[in-house]
Amino acid sequence: MIITGQELVKAIENYAPLTLKMNNDPTGLQLGNLDQPVHRVLTTLDVRPAVVQEAIEQKIDFIFAHHPVMFHPARNLDTSDPQNQMYADLLSHQITVYAAHTNMDKATGGMNDWLAQKLQLQNIQPFGRDVDNVALGRWGRLFQPLSLRELAQNVKQLFGLSGLRLITNDEKQLVQKVGIIGGDGGKFYSQALAAGLDVFITGDVYYHTAHEMLASDLNVIDPGHHIEVIFSEQTKILLTNWAQTHDWDLTVQASQSNTEPFQFI
């Protein structure tokens, strides 16, 4: 059965309702026409020029992304700007782009559950509630205690990282109760403290916030933002399962383009 973008989005939003998204988060349709049939889907963390070229080469007609492509409105349509050229390429090839951002972060079985499961945490529970009292983060316990340094090394290995940042007063301290918020979750560190976490894993920790964490004796591992690339494979699995269950004529593939902007040297 051939489905439209509208039907696919309905399934996505049933799984990760828009009511969960944070204020001012431009989640949802980014570009294109949801009335078009969808045959081939590309799942990706980011929508960048390399991802768009990959989509064009693979004859993709729907990109399902975690990060919105249009965080800020275009001020003009000058295609000498690479961002505007990317929009032009998407439109000229009739590729629809849809993003599920903070709603997927909060959703049960969404981003932070995937990250907690990747860490092999046991008895996963929610923490880190926003103004709507919906939990963004997840915590659980390691199968056995590890030193903070050992856990940091495990995080590097599990997520294929060449480096990360460690905030601690004692890297030899044994830890077991671990919380995680993918992306930029530093502002939730007081809730990590309140939850009694031994260590809080989150990305993009600000310098002054790191000082406050140290003063509060909170252990933090900052693996960067790009660990959320787990979205690509997990949503590929999700959409493929839906296609099999509902007999959709749909091919889903995860982007192979690397959108990590940083190199560790």
UniProtKB/TrEMBL annotation:
<feature type="binding site">
    <location>
        <position position="228"/>
    </location>
    <ligand>
        <name>a divalent metal cation</name>
    </ligand>
</feature>
<dbReference type="GO" id="GO:0046872">
    <property type="term" value="F:metal ion binding"/>
</dbReference>
<keyword id="KW-0479">Metal-binding</keyword>
<feature type="binding site">
    <location>
        <position position="67"/>
    </location>
    <ligand>
        <name>a divalent metal cation</name>
    </ligand>
</feature>
<dbReference type="GO" id="GO:0005737">
    <property type="term" value="C:cytoplasm"/>
</dbReference>
<feature type="binding site">
    <location>
        <position position="66"/>
    </location>
    <ligand>
        <name>a divalent metal cation</name>
    </ligand>
</feature>
<protein>
    <recommendedName>
        <fullName>GTP cyclohydrolase 1 type 2 homolog</fullName>
    </recommendedName>
</protein>
<comment type="similarity">
    <text>Belongs to the GTP cyclohydrolase I type 2/NIF3 family.</text>
</comment>
<dbReference type="InterPro" id="IPR036069">
    <property type="entry name" value="DUF34/NIF3_sf"/>
</dbReference>
<feature type="binding site">
    <location>
        <position position="225"/>
    </location>
    <ligand>
        <name>a divalent metal cation</name>
    </ligand>
</feature>
<dbReference type="Pfam" id="PF01784">
    <property type="entry name" value="DUF34_NIF3"/>
</dbReference>
<feature type="binding site">
    <location>
        <position position="105"/>
    </location>
    <ligand>
        <name>a divalent metal cation</name>
    </ligand>
</feature>
<dbReference type="InterPro" id="IPR002678">
    <property type="entry name" value="DUF34/NIF3"/>
</dbReference>
<comment type="subunit">
    <text>Homohexamer.</text>
</comment>
